[in-house]
Amino acid sequence: MIDHMKTTIRKMGNSQGVLIPKPFLAQLGLENEVEMNVEDDAIVLRRPRTHAREGWAEASKSIAAASDDTLVMGEFGNDDDTELEW
């Protein structure tokens, strides 16, 4: 397991960058895309996180198609709302 290596910052087009050794990428399972941010005084690369609710739209469509979309908690009535003051 590799955990430390010194590398050179290189000119890449109009930007600068570093080459990440293949063993680092393989060790972390990084392939085509990473999330990059600055934490304290370090540049941190991570696997992209899945977005909250990713795939929910497709899942809800398949649940509805299977007619399995009944309310779990039942209906919520608004009978007592007339007494509320806004």
UniProtKB/TrEMBL annotation:
Keywords: DNA-binding
GO MF annotation terms: DNA binding
The organism's place on the tree of life at top rank: Bacteria
Record carries keyword Protein biosynthesis: no
Residues annotated as domain SpoVT-AbrB: 7-50
Pfam families cross-referenced by the UniProt entry: MazE_antitoxin
Classification via InterPro entries: SpoVT-AbrB_dom, SpoVT-AbrB_sf
Matching SUPFAM superfamilies: AbrB/MazE/MraZ-like
Cited PROSITE patterns: SPOVT_ABRB
Name of the protein: Transcriptional regulator/antitoxin, MazE
